[in-house]
Design a protein that fits this description.
By secondary structure, the protein is of the alpha+beta class. It has three helices and nine strands. The strands form three sheets. It has a five-stranded antiparallel beta sheet with strand order 2-3-4-7-8, sandwiched between helices. A two-stranded parallel ribbon has the order 1-9. A hairpin with a 5-residue loop joins strand 7 and strand 8.
């Protein structure tokens, strides 16, 4: 399992670079990302969260299959993803992040997105996603653009979590998975 880079790590604030089909050991990297995500009890993981500033993230929405049976096998990587369109309807939902242990908060996001991305074989796709999958994808997409979910908080909420963020950057936090600050 790869350690999860936490708040304070510079890689989390970088806009990640696209990759091509020749990226070394890509399929192994994707498998390691899924493994790290699962062992950290996550539902999504972006490459910057394991220290790599590349446009790659993985999503596993199978935990939501009870409420949404179509998600029974929704587990896939997204390479060089680009959000093409965001729907106008939004909803607030309480989010957390492996890179911000112990911090949760409501984030307003569009309920539907249309995007293009490559799969692990570099086959290009253009799809529309909605509901919880759209939320997970947008959260992970933020990571490859150097953003964190707390960036969506109001100024008041940001002030309220300032000490928690400083503690995470200092290594003062609890997490049930290996973490790294760099």
């Amino acid at each position: 399992m790869r350690p999860i880079y936490v708040y304070g790590s510079a890689v989390l604030r970088q806009v990640a670079k696209p990759i091509d089909a020749n990226y070394p050991n890509l399929k192994e990297l994707i498998a390691e990302m899924f493994e790290s995500m699962e062992k950290s009890d996550g539902i999504g993981l972006a490459a910057p969260q394991i220290g790599l500033s590349i446009r790659l993230f993985v999503v596993d929405a199978t935990a939501f299959a009870e409420e949404s049976p179509e998600l029974k096998e929704f587990r896939k990587p997204f390479i060089n993803a680009q959000i093409l369109e965001r729907g106008t309807e939004t909803v607030s939902f309480n989010e957390g992040c492996l890179s911000l242990p112990g911090i949760h908060g409501d984030v307003i996001r569009p309920t539907t997105i249309r995007m293009s991305y490559c799969d692990e074989d570099f086959v290009q796709h253009e799809e529309t996603f909605s509901g919880i999958v759209a939320r997970i994808i947008q959260h992970e997409y933020d990571h490859i653009d150097g953003k964190l979910f707390v960036d969506h908080f109001s100024a008041v909420k940001k002030r309220l979590i300032q000490s928690k963020l400083k503690n995470i950057a200092r290594g003062i936090f609890n997490a049930e998975y290996p973490c790294k600050i760099e």
